[in-house]
Every structure is written in C-alpha cells, then in structure tokens.
Amino acid sequence: MNGHDPADCPLIIDRAHFALRPDLVMAGRTLLGAPPPRGQQLEDHYFAGIPERIQACIAEVETELVPTYAAVAGLSLALGQKWRVATVFREALAAEFDVDVRATDLGALALPELNVAGVAAYDPLQVHVEVSRALWDWTLIVAATYKRWSDAPGRLEATTSCPASRPNCAALPPEPFELYDTWVPRAAAVYAFALTRRARAELRAGYAYEVTPMPEQVGAENTWDNSRHVLGLGYGVRLPSGPLPLSLDLAYQLHVLSARTHEKDAGVVSQNAGFPAVTTSGTVQSFALALGVTF
Fold first, then answer.
1. Contacts of 281 (CB under 8 A, 6+ apart)
2. Do 226 and 216 meet the contact criterion of CB atoms below 8 Å apart?
3. Domains of the chain
4. Radius of gyration for the chain, computed over Cα atoms and rounded to the nearest angstrom
5. How far apart are CA 41 and CA 35, in angstroms?
C-alpha cells in the first residue's frame, strides 16, 4: 500500500507480487514499470469496481487509524478597563505512523520483518503570552510565542533493528534530526468603528517574525526551511442586533521568506540535489473568508 498522504489514492497489490518486485521491497515505490495502455495514467482504475478483499483491507486500515490529541489551557486577566494580559499553553502534537512489512513466499530467501515508522506531522509545545492596551477606538497588542522544536522526534525511525545475536549488523540507523527552539515576536493593532447604528466594523493589522528551527543543510539531507516575515490584514463586520446576528471576516496574510543559502560539506556527493549550494527564498500568500451566526 503506497500513498503520499491520507488524501491520496492508495495503491494496493498482493503481498506475493510485492515480494517479486525488488524496487518495491527496497525503495517502497515503483522504479521500473510499463506505461499504461493508451496513456490512461489516471483513468482506467476510476471506472472499475473495488474487489471485496480490497474493501476489507481498506476497512482494516481505517479501523486502525488512531486520533491524536494535545492539551490546551489559557488564562486571560483584565488589569483595569484598559489593560489585559493573556497566556495560552499547548502541548506538542505528533501524528505518528507505524507499518509492519513482511516479505513471504520467497523460497530459501529470508528477509527480516521491516517496520516503517515515524512522524507525518509535528506541532511543538507552545507557550504564548500577550499584553493588550485599549486606547480610545484602538487596541494595541504585543505578544511572543515560545516553540520547543528541540523535542521533535525526527521524521523516520530505523526500518529494521539488529538482532541480539548480531549487534553489529548492517541495519541503517535513522538519519540524525535536530531542530532549535524558537521565539516568535508579534505585534498587532485593531481599530473599531461604527458603520451604522446597528453595525460595527474592525480594521486589523499585524506583524510577526518566525525564525526557522531548521539548521543549515550542510550534509546529504535536503530539508529546506526559511525564517519569514509575516504581514496580516483583516476586516470584520458585526451585526449584533436583529433576529439573526451575523458576522463577516476577511483576512489576508503575506509570508516573505528570508533568503537563505545552504552550502554542502566537501564529503557530500556531487549528485546531491543541493550540491554544492542552494539558495531558497520566496513568498506565500493566503486569503480567508468567514461568515458567522450567533445563537
């Protein structure tokens, strides 16, 4: 079974056929294969029925999916009518996967049981503190967020381990993985005003500087990440009165990735995608629209 993420279409083949494919056994993906008939790369399988044993396999996988949770706690304290202090704590959240791969029906050839395990997504432990000040129609906010990236467990675990009788076997350990803890400073301003006697509106603007937790990629690994300047703009309308109180919020966010150059060590092979050096930069934009109803 193979797929890039839970939203992708899985590819399921018989275990016996899997064992006959060295590319699937060693690399976990198709390296050699014949092209589909008439160039129908993504068409023919969508119009076929799903066999019962495949449906049973999919049902078993869905049954074994385990949700993950992270505790969140917050406290907000008003200091008079103009000052407010708030803090939020959220523990780390890791989406882990663990799959056993057994090769059978190989005759005299015996392969050890392989275990593909790791972390598909990880959010670090975070502590957020902010202070706000009301000033006429304005609200000014400064904040900081601590992220403990150093606890990240790494993306993959060892595929197989050495038996006790052969502690120095050729099993490859997982590649080392190191992240740094970061602080994210933030500043924002909100201006509130009346549109009509019944409608209120807000203009919002904010800035944050997100430092990358990823060290420079000087070895064979190519996990590129950048520090970023984050600019945000927002507009909100509130209609609190009437039979159906409504709210409308618009938001825009721009991430400007600071240019960063990764220079490989001399021992890295020239075929490496980042050899001898690679520079990453760019921008990311996002838009949001939310319509709310208050009951």
1. 226, 257, 258, 259, 260
2. no
3. 1-65 (no CATH), 73-293 (2.40.160.60)
4. 26
5. 8
State the number of CA atoms in the 13 A half-sphere of 130 facing the CB.
22
Residue with tokens 């006429």, as numbered in its chain = 136
Q: State how far the Cα of 245 lies from the Cα of 242, in Å rounded to an integer.
A: 6
The DSSP call for residue 167 is: T
135 strand-pairing partners = 138
Q: What is the mean pLDDT of the chain?
A: 83
Say what the pLDDT of residue 13 is.
Answer: 77
The 10s digit of each residue's pLDDT in 74-130 is: 999 999 989 999 999 999 998 887 777 666 666 666 666 667 777 878 899 999 999
Helix (H) or strand (E) holding 100: strand 93-101
Query: Which whole number is the average pLDDT over 30-58?
Result: 66
- Best CA proximity match to 24, nearest among 124, 98, 111: 111
Q: What is the mean pLDDT of residues 3-30?
A: 65
